């Protein structure tokens, strides 16, 4: 069962919206290498507002993701692409419906 999640809000700098969208699309391949990432979504909420939502079976899976390749790449690119550092919110999953 999925018990843990992350919601990461991203606000693109003016003119960097397409680069943020590309980063999210490219991140999908990196996340596929993380067995403990149950679900991962790159989301566009508005013209310059994006988010990442991902879910994990437990704290260990979430911690592994936070120290993984996507998180590292995001922190490296954040100063160039984002208005402010990513806002990372940890959450507990109360219910889910995922395949498998």
Structure summary, number of beta strands? 4
Following the backbone from N to C, one meets helices and strands in this order, namely EHEEHHE
- Broad structural category: alpha+beta
- As a percent range, the share of strand residues is 25-35%
Give the count of structural domains. Answer: 1
**CATH topology heading:** Alpha-Beta Plaits
Oligomer: single chain
Give a short account of the largest sheet. 4 strands, antiparallel
Can you count the helices?
3
**Gross morphology:** globular
Based on the coordinates given, report the CATH architecture.
2-Layer Sandwich
Termini separation comes to 10 Å
Gyration radius (Cα, Å) is 13 Å
CATH class: Alpha Beta
Side-by-side strand order of the widest sheet: 2-3-1-4
What's the overall average pLDDT, rounded?
95
The helical percent reads 25-40%
The poorly predicted ranges are none
Architecture overview:
This protein is an alpha+beta fold and 100 residues long. The protein has a single domain, classed as Alpha-Beta Plaits (2-Layer Sandwich). The chain has helices at 17-31, 59-66, 69-81, and strands spanning 4-11, 39-44, 49-56, 87-92. The protein has a 4-stranded antiparallel β-sheet with strand order 2-3-1-4. It starts with a strand and ends in an 8-residue tail after the last strand. The mean pLDDT is 95.
How is this fold's topology laid out?
Layout: E1 4-11, H1 17-31, E2 39-44, E3 49-56, H2 59-66, H3 69-81, E4 87-92
Helix pairs in contact: 1-3
